[in-house]
Specification:
alpha/beta, five-stranded mixed sheet
C-alpha cells in the first residue's frame, strides 16, 4: 500500500472500511486520487464515517470529480441555486423517473454536506440549514412537476377576488417540525401540511375537465407525496389539521378555523416550528399571521404553558419503545428536552413579547437568555449539549442512512462512534454524553418539575421559572465527598471564600475537584506566569490530539482559576484581571496553532516548516479587555505570496484543514471542558465567507467591499499572532475609507446598527445592549474615531484610554467625556463582577445583588440600582447628542 495512503487510513475512525473502499474503487479512479492528496483524504474520511456514502461513491465514481469541484465551497447554496443544480442533474439523467431522480440528487448533495459536517467547517445550525434547503428545493421541483400534470388534467384552479373576478388559486407546502425550523437532520421524516388559498373550481381547460379546488389540491398533494415520499424522504402528514382522518390539503380559512376552535394545545405548539417550504409563501404568511395570537396568547400563563408542553413530553415517553440503548432524541437529557425547554418558554412569554417567536431552537434559546428567561450558564450548557447531541445524531444516521437515534451499547461500536465524534475512546464518549445529558435534564427538571420524582403538588411560577442560584458550597463539598482529593486548611479557607463569592467558579470546582489542590491561599501574591511556555510545554510531548486538548483545558482552567481567586481576594485590579486574561487568551491561541500544526503534520505525514498564518482579534480580544466568559472574535489569514506549507495542496485546501483543527483545539468540548467560544462571524462575507483567507484578499475586501458596519467593527482590529503588519495596513485602509464616507451616512449607519442590537437583544437592566449600556459607548466612540481619524493606540487599546484620547483631541467636550468615562467605568466594573460571581450575564440577577454591590464598594443592591440608572441616563444623553 502507498505509504501516504496508509498513513491517511491509519488515523481514521474505521480504517478497515476505508481500506476496503479504496481497494474496491476502479483502478482509474484510485490512480487519480493518489495524485490529489486533499481529495483523497476527503473521500477516505467519507468512506470511514459513512458506509452509505462509500457505497454511493463506488456506484457512482463520477461523483468524486463532482465532489472535488464542490468540496471547498464555503457558501451555503440557496434554494434557487439547488434548483438550478437539480435541473442540470435531471438533464444528464433524463431517463430516470422523478422519484428516483430526487433520491439520487439528494444522496449526491449529502456527500458535500456531510464532508463539511465531519470537517467541522460549519456550525451545526449551518449544516441543518443546508439539509433543510436541499429538502425545500426537492419539494419545489416536485410541486412544479405535479402542478404541470394536474393543470393538464383539470386546468388551473381558480378563486374569486373581492370584486367577483376569477383569479388563480395559490398553494403552499408548509414545513413543520425540524424542517419547519430549518433544523432537518440527515434521516429525518419531513413533516408537511398542504394549504391552498380558497375554494372554487378549476378552469376546465384540461383533458378531464372541471373539478373543485378541493379535489385538485388533494390530488396535487397526493402526487407530491408520491414523488418525494417513496425514495427521497419519508413524508409524514400526521401533523396536518384533523391528523390521519383529515383531508390531505385544506383551504387556508378552514385551517385557521380548525386551529382557533378544535386543535389541541400540542397541535398549536407544532405551529411554533412552521414555515413555507415550497409554493406560494403568501398563502402561508396570511395563514400564520391570522393565527399568531392563537399560538402565542397574551393570556397564556406560565403554569399552563409548562403543563401543556410537559404533557406532550410525557405522551412521547409513554409511546417510546423501551430500549436498552440510549435514545439521543427522546432519552433523558436528549434533544427533545432542549426543544421543549425552548418551546415552553416561548409559549409562556411569546404572547407578550413577539421577539421570542422564533422557530429555530438555538435562536429561540439565545433570545430567551437575552430576556433573562434562561441564565447565560444555562444557555451555554444547552448550546453545547445541542451541538454535541445533534452531531452525534448525524454520526449515527449517516453510518447507514437509517432514521436511528440509538447509541449502541456494544463497546466496539461505541468506540467507533467516539472516534467519529473526535473523542479518544468509548470511556471519554460515555463521560461526555453523560455530562451533556445531565446538564440538559437538570435544566429541564428545574423548569418543568420532575413528574416521576417530585410530588404533583409542586407549583411552577414565574419566580422559580428563572434560573435559581443554588448553594454552590454544598455542591462543591458534595462533589468532594465522591472524590479522593486531599487538601489542607489553607486550601479549605480559599475554597470557602470562592464558594461564598462566586457561584460561577464554585461550579467549576464542583465539576472538577482536582483543581482545588492548585488554589492559591490568601497569604500568597500573584506571580505573573509565561502562559505560552506553560501551555506549549504541557502539550508538546503528548502524542495524541485528544490528550493535547485535555492537557490544554486542564492548564487553562488552573490559570483562569488562579486569576479569579486573586480577583476575589481583592489582590488584582480590574485592569490587571483583564490584562492577565488577555494574555491567557493569547497564549491559548498560540498553543492552538502549535497543536493544530502538530496534528496536521501527523495526518498529512509531512513536516510543516513555516505556517505563514495570522490571527487578528476583534472585540474584547482586539481591545485587550478579555474577561470571564468572553468569546474570541477572530479573523484568520494566511500569506499567499509564499509557498503553501504542503506543496501538493492549494493554500485554500491546506488552511481550511488547519483552521478546522485550530478552532477545534480552542472550542471543542471534551470532558475537561473547552477554552473559548470562537466567533468567526465578523470575517469578510460572514458565514458565507471562507473561514480563512489570504492577507491580500482581506485588505482588498476592506478597501473595496467592506460596509460601514464592518469598519465600525474593525476599528478594534489587532494582530494577535503574526498579523501586526496586516493590522497596520488594515487600520490605514479603515480610517482612510471612513474619511470618504458622507458624515450623515456614517452617523445613520452607526445609529441603525446600534438600534438593531438594542431591539433584538436588550432586556430590562441590560448593561450591554440596553439603552445607556456599554454598546452606546462603543458605537459612539468608534463613530468618533472614524469621523475624526483617531486610530487605536498601539500599546493601550482600552476603552477608557481611547475616551481620554478623544477628549484630548476635542472630539468629546468635558461633560460628555465625564458621562461616558464615569458611566463606562461603572458598567465595566459591574459587568466584571457579574461575570466573576454568577457567570456571563448582561442583566442583574434577582438575587445576590448585595454581594455584587459589596464588590463595587456600594452599600446594597438598592444603591447599585440607583447608580446604574444614573449612569445609563448620562450615557444615553451623550450618545444621543453625538449621533442624532
Amino acid at each position: 500500500m502507498n505509504q501516504s495512503l496508509e498513513q491517511l487510513i491509519k488515523d481514521l475512525p474505521n480504517a478497515e472500511d476505508a481500506s476496503r473502499f479504496f481497494d474496491e474503487l476502479p483502478p482509474k479512479e484510485s490512480s487519480k486520487l493518489l495524485k490529489q492528496q486533499g481529495l483523497l483524504s476527503d473521500v477516505l474520511v467519507l468512506a470511514s464515517f459513512s458506509p452509505l456514502l462509500a457505497i454511493t461513491l463506488l456506484q457512482n465514481p463520477n461523483y468524486i470529480s463532482w465532489l472535488n469541484r464542490r468540496r471547498l465551497e464555503t457558501q451555503i447554496p440557496s434554494k434557487e441555486e439547488l434548483l438550478e443544480s437539480l435541473a442540470r442533474f435531471a438533464a444528464t439523467n433524463s431517463q430516470v423517473e422523478a422519484d428516483e431522480l430526487f433520491a439520487r440528487f439528494r444522496r449526491r448533495e449529502l456527500l458535500r454536506i456531510y464532508l463539511k459536517d465531519i470537517r467541522g467547517i460549519y456550525t451545526i445550525a449551518e449544516i441543518t440549514e443546508e439539509i433543510s434547503v436541499l429538502a425545500d428545493a426537492i419539494l419545489e421541483k416536485a410541486l412544479q412537476i405535479a402542478r404541470q400534470e394536474l393543470d393538464n388534467r383539470y386546468g388551473i384552479p381558480l378563486e374569486t377576488d373581492e370584486k367577483g373576478r376569477a383569479k388563480p388559486a395559490t398553494f403552499c407546502i408548509v414545513a413543520l417540525g425540524k424542517l419547519g425550523s430549518n433544523e432537518l437532520n440527515y434521516a429525518s421524516d419531513i413533516d408537511l401540511s398542504f394549504i391552498y388559498s380558497a375554494e372554487g373550481t378549476t378552469s376546465g381547460h384540461g383533458r378531464k375537465g372541471e373539478t373543485t379546488n378541493r379535489e385538485y389540491f388533494i390530488k396535487l398533494s397526493e402526487f407530491i407525496v408520491k414523488l418525494t415520499g417513496q425514495k427521497a424522504y419519508r413524508v409524514d402528514m400526521r401533523l396536518r389539521p384533523h391528523g390521519k382522518i383529515g383531508a390531505l390539503a385544506i383551504c387556508s380559512a378552514d385551517a385557521v378555523r380548525y386551529y382557533e376552535t378544535e386543535a389541541q394545545a400540542w397541535e398549536r405548539q407544532v405551529l411554533i416550528r412552521s414555515r413555507s417550504s415550497a409554493g406560494d409563501g403568501e398563502v402561508f404568511k396570511t395563514f400564520i399571521e391570522t393565527l399568531e395570537n392563537v399560538i402565542f396568547s397574551k393570556d397564556e400563563t406560565v403554569e399552563n404553558a409548562l403543563r401543556n408542553v410537559r404533557l406532550s413530553k410525557e405522551k412521547i415517553n409513554l409511546e417510546k419503545l423501551d430500549n436498552k440503548d440510549f435514545n439521543v432524541k427522546l432519552g433523558i437529557g436528549g434533544i427533545r428536552e432542549i426543544e421543549f425547554i425552548a418551546q415552553a418558554l416561548q409559549l409562556a412569554h411569546g404572547g407578550r413579547d413577539k421577539w421570542l417567536r422564533s422557530p429555530h431552537t438555538l435562536i429561540s434559546l439565545s433570545r430567551l437568555a437575552d430576556r433573562n428567561l434562561l441564565s447565560e450558564n444555562d444557555l451555554t450548557e444547552l448550546f453545547e449539549a445541542y451541538n454535541f447531541l445533534r452531531r452525534l445524531e448525524h454520526r449515527l444516521q449517516m453510518e447507514n442512512g437509517l432514521q436511528t437515534h440509538l447509541v449502541p451499547n456494544d463497546d466496539g461500536k461505541r468506540s467507533i462512534v467516539a472516534k467519529r465524534m473526535n473523542l479518544h475512546d468509548s470511556a471519554e464518549f460515555n463521560e461526555t454524553l453523560k455530562y451533556h445529558t445531565a446538564n440538559v435534564n437538570r435544566i429541564f427538571i428545574r423548569i418543568f418539575g420532575d413528574s416521576e420524582h417530585t410530588p404533583q403538588t409542586v407549583q411552577i411560577t414565574e419566580k422559580n421559572l428563572h434560573s435559581v442560584i443554588r448553594n454552590p458550597q454544598s455542591e462543591v463539598f458534595a462533589s468532594l465527598k465522591k472524590s479522593d482529593v486531599k487538601f489542607d486548611e489553607k486550601k479549605a479557607e480559599t475554597l470557602k471564600i470562592i464558594c461564598e463569592n462566586s457561584h460561577h467558579f464554585s461550579e467549576l470546582l464542583a465539576s472538577n475537584p482536582n483543581l482545588i489542590t492548585g488554589l492559591p491561599t490568601r497569604l500568597e501574591t500573584f506571580d505573573e506566569k509565561n502562559y505560552i511556555d506553560l501551555m506549549i510545554s504541557a502539550v508538546k510531548n503528548e502524542p495524541e490530539f485528544a490528550k493535547r486538548l485535555a492537557v490544554l483545558r486542564k492548564i487553562w482552567s488552573q490559570c483562569l482559576l488562579e486569576i479569579a481567586t486573586f480577583d476575589i481576594f481583592g489582590k488584582l485590579t480590574l485592569t490587571e484581571a483583564k490584562q492577565r486574561q488577555t494574555k491567557l487568551a493569547e497564549a491559548s491561541l498560540e498553543a492552538a496553532i502549535f497543536t493544530a500544526k502538530r496534528e496536521l503534520e501527523k495526518r498529512l505525514e509531512t513536516k510543516i516548516a513555516e505556517l505563514n498564518f495570522a490571527v487578528l482579534g476583534l472585540g474584547k480580544l482586539g481591545g485587550r479587555g478579555m474577561d470571564y466568559g468572553s468569546d474570541v472574535d477572530l479573523v484568520l489569514l494566511y500569506d499567499d505570496d509564499k509557498l503553501c506549507p504542503v506543496n501538493n495542496l492549494t493554500h485554500s485546501e491546506f488552511y481550511s484543514r488547519f483552521v478546522e483543527l485550530f478552532v477545534a483545539t480552542l472550542s471543542s468540548f471534551t470532558r475537561e471542558g473547552h477554552l473559548y467560544r470562537v466567533d468567526l462571524r465578523l470575517r469578510p462575507d460572514g458565514k458565507n465567507g471562507s473561514t480563512s483567507m489570504s492577507k491580500s484578499s482581506f485588505l482588498n475586501y476592506l478597501q473595496n467591499r467592506s460596509a460601514i458596519w464592518e469598519l465600525l467593527a474593525y476599528v478594534k482590529i489587532r494582530g494577535v499572532s503574526g498579523g501586526e503588519m496586516t493590522e497596520n495596513a488594515a487600520r490605514k485602509i479603515i480610517h482612510a475609507k471612513a474619511q470618504t464616507i458622507d458624515l450623515q451616512e456614517l452617523k445613520a449607519e452607526t445609529l441603525r446598527m446600534r438600534e438593531r442590537l438594542e431591539q433584538e437583544k436588550s432586556a430590562k437592566f441590560d448593561i450591554k445592549f440596553g439603552a445607556g449600556g456599554m454598546l452606546d459607548v462603543y458605537f459612539a466612540m468608534r463613530f468618533l474615531q472614524l469621523r475624526d481619524n483617531i486610530p487605536d493606540d498601539t500599546e493601550n487599546r482600552s476603552t477608557r484610554f481611547m475616551l481620554k484620547k478623544l477628549y484630548e483631541f476635542g472630539s468629546l467636550d468635558k461633560e460628555n467625556f465625564d458621562n461616558f468615562y464615569n458611566g463606562y467605568e461603572f458598567l465595566s466594573r459591574l459587568d466584571h463582577n457579574l461575570r466573576l460571581t454568577i457567570g456571563r450575564s448582561n442583566s442583574l440577577p434577582s438575587s445576590n445583588l448585595d454581594l455584587i454591590a459589596q464588590r463595587l464598594n456600594l452599600l446594597n443592591g438598592k444603591e447599585l440600582i440607583e447608580q446604574l440608572t444614573l449612569h445609563r441616563l448620562n450615557i444615553r444623553e451623550t450618545y444621543e447628542q453625538i449621533l442624532r
